[in-house]
Amino acid sequence: xxxxxxxxxxxxxxxxxxxxxxxxxxxxxxxxxxxxxxxxxxxxxxxxxxxxxxxxxxxxxxxxxxxxxxxxxxxxxxxxxxxxxxxxxxxxxxxxxxxxxxxxxxxxxxxxxxxxxxxxxxxxxxxxxxxxxxxxxxxxxxxxxxxxxxxxxxxxxxxxxxxxxxxxxxxxxxxxxxxxxxxxxxxxxxxxxxxxxxxxxxxxxxxxxxxxxxxxxxxxxxxxxxxxxxxxxxxxxxxxxxxxxxxxxxxxxxxxxxxxxxxxxxxxxxxxxxxxxxxxxxxxxxxxxxxxxxxxxxxxxxxxxxxxxxxxxxxxxxxxxxxxxxxxxxxxxxxxxxxxxxxxxxxxxxxxxxxxxxxxxxxxxxxxxxxxxxxxxxxxxxxxxxx
Length: 387
Hints:
By secondary structure, the protein is of the alpha+beta class. The protein is built from twelve helices and 14 strands. The chain is 51% helix and 21% strand.
């Protein structure tokens, strides 16, 4: 025999004060948890959009990132001539020898961080077709010009359109802003590889070589060809794999720390739920005793109180979801823990993340209500009626 559902609803409505406090405490736990997952999802998208399965990135053997890599430009020329590298309409290989340099810049809020300066060849725009100019124009080699990712320009006043800035020993002018389709390149400054190399005295030098192929199968074959050439002493990866490793290294930091914070807050919210449910039990002892005397078994009483706790959690979860909706699309930045440079990205609150927040709230409510519910179900009928 089950206790009618309207009994639970009526009791929750009659004790609105304690119910609202409990809902608020659990909702803030959900808000923090969803915020952390949204950060991680935004990072995953930024890195995921950076990799093209048709592209092969080549680094010095043993290097984990472009900031650790370096080899002569001549090696890049040799790889650009390998079979499997795609060519443009003019017959030029779609291959870009690139140098990645870190420069300390000041954010809009006054704090400092490393920003990635990427020296590229003209073919870089063919190798990365998602990159497009949204304001101004492309840089011209030999003129000390750069273009800046649109997300980065919003956070650094020095990188806004038309500004001049000193990189190394040369002043560069920002002549364009570009969009990288949500990828991590939107957090970079691009210029001619010769100009940036000269500014930092790294002429005829590559951090990486980026090669475009006709298909995913050709990309894997090119990776095997480069890895198997002992003369080159280089390592190759398809581009998505390279950026996936960066996403894992950077995103894991947020997930671990944020989850720990959410767990600690959820622990406190469990006490709030437990306090609410204990108050419910204390105020309804006679009712519980009467229900037991009428023949309702202990499991029905236990189930009724757990249902109330789960309902509180669900309401809190929905409130937390509503509070978290404005987070979607907010632009923020953090440090890429592989290259130690600034990466700018937008938070993403997907339906799956919102569902995880609601489930966390329900679990918090049930855990908080478990002990009071068990106490209510196990107490003798005579004791309950006397109270």
